[in-house]
Amino acid sequence: MLRQAEKLGTREKLTVLIADDHPLVREALNRTLESEEDIEVVAEASDGEEAVKLASELKPSVVVMDIVMPKLNGIEATRKIKEIAPDSAILILTAYDDDEYVLGLLDAGAAGYLLKSARGRDLVGAIRAIRSGESVLHPKIIAKLLKRATMSPVGEHKASGLLSERESEILQLVTSGMSNKEIAGKLFLSQRTIKAHLTNIFNKLNVASRSEAIVKGLQWGLVTLENTETKPPG
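Given the sequence above, the corresponding structure tokens read:
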């Protein structure tokens, strides 16, 4: 089901694709999101293949994705969507919370995950947070993800000079676990400025979320886990 994306004043709405094989779940998610003035549900998919097709055509801001779906599961659908629409952030909404399962999704390029037991306001907040560069992951999952990233670097990459000095500083603070608000306070900058820098970082790294930026930053040697705060990102 397609809908024309609208604009909120002069600012474009956050466009969302819902992918779940249960009609009642899609209806409930749609009802939750349609009341938000800054969010527009542009399509619904009932299986993984349809999700990939619609994401390729519409390039939504966020894909809300189930894991277990017909034709193509959430992990494979996530991987394919990130290949063809890297600017779309993928938020996994699932009943499964097994760490290794979730890590597989994050390795495929998901930006974060929520359990289906979450409240509607948590989903809305997660969608907004992803597009603002905030984390939508449990701290223990982030810690394991970072450990995995440092154990499997992609080797030398032509990343020298890719980020400005300020962008490198911000990405390092993100890796240390600081929120946008905390980074803004530390650097004496506004949160809006931090969001703008994160947008530039995402564009340069060709990612759509904080978790993707952290992993790629570690793999490319742009940031390290040394001299960071004790709390993991999130």
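DSSP finds ten helices and seven strands in the chain. Try to locate this feature in the token string yourself.
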